[in-house]
Amino acid sequence: MTELKKYQSAVWSEPIVLTMGSTGRRGQRFALDRPVDHTLEELLPAHLRREKSVKLPELSEFEVLRHYEHLSQQTLGMMGVSLFGTCTMKYNPRVNERLVNKPEVAEVHPLQDPSTFQGTLEIVDSFDHMLREVSGMDRFVFQAGGGADAAYLHMTLTRAYFADRGELGTRNEIITTIQSHPCNPATAAAAGFSVITLPLEEDGYPSTEALRAALSDRTAALVMNNPDDIGIYNPRVKEWVDAAHEAGALCFYDHANFNGVMTRIRARELGFDACMFMLHKTFGSPKSGSGGPAIGAYGCTDDLAKYLPGPLLERTDSGALTLVEGSDKGVGRIREFMGNLPVVIRAYCWSRSMGIEGLREAANLSVLANNYMETRILSIPGVSKAFPDNKLFRLEMTRYSLEKLTADTGVTVLDIQNRMTDFGVDAPWLSHDPWFIPEPITPEAGELWSREDLDHWIDALTQSCEEAYADPELVKSAPHNQAIHKLSDAQFSDPDTWATTWRSYKRKYQRP
Amino acid sequence: MNKLEGFDGHPYMANSNKQARQAMLDAVGATNLDQLFEQIPQDNLTDHEFSWPKELSSEHELFQVVNKLLSRNQHCEDNLSFIGSGAYRHYVPAIVDTVIGRSEFLTPVFGTSSSDQGRMQAWFEFTSQLGELLDMEFVGLPVYSYGAAIGHALRMAARVNGRSKVIIPEILDPEKMAVVNTYAGHPDLDGHLEVITCSCDSQTGLIDTDQLSVLLNDQVAAVYFESPNALGSLEVNASKIIQLARTQGVLSIMGVDPITLGIVRSPGSLDCDICVGSIASLGVHLNSGGGVAGFIASRDEERLVRQFPTLQVSLAKTTNQGELGFALTLFEQSSYAAREEGNDWTGNGVYLWAIAASVYMSLLGPEGFREIGAAVLQRTFDLKRSLASVNGIQVLSPGTNFREVVVSFRDSGKSIKAINDALLARGIFGGCDLAVMDSRLEGCALYCVTELHSAEDIDQLVRALKEILA
């Protein structure tokens, strides 16, 4: 191992913006070129008027810019290496930013006449067709503002489908696995379904027998991902889908982990009725401030398409694209308007740049890089991989466990996560709750990062683990190179101490 | 299996060269790439011949192709637009775009509280400044949209008091109404909310408080109302609605647009229980509909707070005496921690817009919010008065309007579509047809102005309408 590159976060001790500024300072002014001959008092009756001035900071424009630039510098934010598992960290091409920041996208109102934004609608239509190609589905919509919202769309569409068939009274169960994303059971419950969760068995996926035992005439849908976040592919997926169909249920493929299998499998050919792609992960759009604007592109068969929410694209006889409402029996809306269209445009641009051969290359590289990492990671003291008896090459992710390291040293995976950030490595993904693999850690290499970057990440993990054995306190007290120290083990769920606003903090902590 | 071979030397993929590929293949002990996919059974692999357009791996070529497509779009910067109806074009100060375009904010995922301290602080400053505008102490990180915020808040209220009926105004933006109906669920399934509509005045959209009194009882979980409402009116009876609800143990949910709150009475001072609304007006572009973003806030009261479906950032102490950091709080009640037992669900949302809104609020300060509020109010008044001067037009908004007014073209003998087509021919985007919202508003359209409309813009609309209606 070569010596690790040094990293140190900027430290600006940037105050909370509400404590900054000086009375009378201005950051933005609004002038009216033809004031009406009425005062504010005349235009706004007293009982509608604000009484006390808003306690916002008073800052000049430059001070605001500098404050937030300092905050950005106090954010590691993918400036080093980020191999955050399940999120498929990609390069977000800046040419796409240049395009979507143009007024032809940024200043278009969603309720403009469709004839006035045909360029965007053509892109949406083309991208819909490109996703149909890679999945085999008949139609895609983009209203869902993220993967979880797409799962919710699937649950509400399932609801509409069975309500239309008069079966909703009995079909009220969704079956999923413990390795599905938490949003799958959560959106099922929010849509009114009860949830059956299948546990994993020795190969790393639930048994088909367990699935068969759970299926019945009460099953509305089977919801699964494949491969899962451990990197294991359920080889009996076709049998699963067939069994669910025999029971009269719909099958939804949460394709969050599509990156490693792009161009090798198609959801429809495996038998699925619907699937979902993350445009802000797999298709090169930014994660954006750690959480959107995003899109869970939802695709389904013609049988289900009649329940999709409007506004839906339709080509008129003249060849132009227009927008029409969905069916009365369908999902009216899960969100206002057509979706985060700038995200669709970015994903379209990314896909056009890559082409289908680029997609194949990305899938190949992400799986290759993951297995390359495994060869080095498994030689680190205290590290093992989940389901070690499954010897087959993992797909684009591998879940590891630091159980032995924790037993040997008392250093937890949370400590290691903090320590790795000291080397300019974004905190790695551990696992969704519940942690059925103890002390889990789950890198995802993807196709962006160079072999040198991957080596740096592995070196940072190696160094952190070696330190755990040599000097556990150093790791437990990490981070040391960040803008602030480690958070104390305070109770964050106590009404006396939580403070989600400055005014709440002042009341709770600064009592006279 | 299909015959795809991959792509050599793509600018987005560092290892897409023979040297890197071969070195890694050697390290893993595989002779070819296909071997790595041994987990996937043969009969799962596709032999589909993909029909994708040829790749545009040269950036200049990609830019030109997409730019040409986009050049077919018309937009509100070049065209005079009077469309509102749930998406409002306010000015976005330049530094908002500068800040949210920074890589550290634009591209990453969650780090730890320490490694992403700056972003956590920006989020905390978003909730804190919004809390000041609202006069409310508990604010969650944003949700997908205003409509989603209403849906979540209604469900949250039902969990708080264990009731299952909710009251909403009969006049509500149709996009939001459709979202709320989805969130309300289905009577055949668990957790269904029975949605009851309360009658509203057809010219102002204001809640009929007499009917509301009749509808309220101990089975109602919540009453939702908004100000400004779907017709642009500020709700004059907000205090009364909140008090009426409270006497029946019903939670009040008030919808607001925070851009009004430099001058308009705050939801906190009215003492509503839960506040929802949009943050899209605070420094977010229209983005073809991709600018929508919502929030949920309340008093810092445990029975309410325990039912929030959002993620939250709290101030927290670090191991260094006197130093403050930020942590996610109440994570255990989110779907991330509790799966189907969590409060609704959360996921990727619109968190970048929280940073945009934070910058926007810091820039405006108290005086900026007062000025923009007054400017929009005056412009709305100007629009009302100017349109009323046109023959064949009646402005039906007798109350106090912010941004939007109801314009009746019934006397003109022309349909809204015919008028909007004629306006479009003159490069003007006319207001949305209101018949879809309420049948009593047949022949009416909703016209919207903001600080971005000059006096000349309004005069231009008036001249165009006079021509069209002549």
Quick structural overview:
The complex is a heterodimer of chains A (512) and B (470). With 512 residues, chain A is α/β, with parallel strands linked by helices. Chain A has 16 helices and 12 strands.
Can you give keywords for this protein?
heterodimer; A: about 500 residues; alpha/beta; Aspartate Aminotransferase, domain 2; 7-stranded mixed β-sheet; 3-stranded antiparallel β-sheet; B: about 475 residues; Aspartate Aminotransferase, domain 1; 3 domains; 4-stranded antiparallel β-sheet; 15 helices; about 35% helix
Q: Give average pLDDT of chain B, whole number.
A: 97
By CATH's scheme, which homologous superfamily of the largest domain in chain B applies? Answer: Type I PLP-dependent aspartate aminotransferase-like (Major domain)
Question: What is the percentage of strand-forming residues of chain A?
Answer: 5-15%
Look at the structure and give the CATH class of the largest domain in chain B. Answer: Alpha Beta
- Structural shape of chain B: globular
* CATH fold naming of the largest domain in chain B: Aspartate Aminotransferase, domain 2
Spatial order of the strands forming the largest sheet of chain A: 1-7-6-5-4-2-3
Largest sheet of chain B: 7 strands, mixed
The fraction of residues in strands of chain B falls at 5-15%
Q: Which series of helices and strands of chain B comes N to C?
A: HHEHHHEHEHEHEHEHEEHEEHHEEHEEEH
Structure write-up:
The complex is a heterodimer of chains A (512) and B (470). Among the domains of chain A are: 17-74, no CATH class; 114-351, Aspartate Aminotransferase, domain 2 (3-Layer(aba) Sandwich). The mean pLDDT of chain A is 96. The radius of gyration of chain A is 26 Å and the shape is globular. Chain A contains 16 helices and twelve strands. Chain A has helices at 40-43, 61-73, 94-100, 103-106, 118-135, 147-164, 183-190, 208-214, 237-246, 302-305, 341-377, 403-409, 413-420, 451-470, 472-476, 502-509; strands at residues 139-141, 173-177, 194-198, 219-224, 250-254, 274-278, 296-300, 312-315, 321-324, 384-385, 400-401, 440-441. Chain B has three domains: 2-62, no CATH class; 80-90 and 366-469, Aspartate Aminotransferase, domain 1, CATH 3.90.1150; 94-359, 3-Layer(aba) Sandwich (Aspartate Aminotransferase, domain 2). Helices cover 36% and strands 14% of the residues of chain B. Chain B has helices spanning 18-28, 59-70, 94-100, 103-106, 117-134, 146-161, 174-184, 209-215, 238-247, 267-270, 302-305, 335-338, 351-388, 416-425, 455-469, and strands at residues 80-81, 138-139, 165-169, 194-198, 220-226, 251-256, 274-278, 294-298, 312-317, 324-329, 394-395, 404-408, 428-429, 432-433, 444-448. In chain B, the strands form four sheets. Chain B has a seven-stranded mixed β-sheet, with helices on both faces. A four-stranded antiparallel β-sheet of chain B has the order 11-12-15-14, covered by helices on one side. A two-stranded parallel sheet of chain B has the order 1-13. In chain B, strand 5 (220-226), helix 9 and strand 6 (251-256) form a beta-alpha-beta unit. The longest helix of chain B is centred in the C-terminal third of the chain and has 38 residues, at 351-388. The mean pLDDT of chain B is 97. At the A-B interface, helix 2, helix 3, helix 4, helix 5 and helix 6 of A face helix 1, helix 2, helix 3, helix 4 and helix 5 of B.
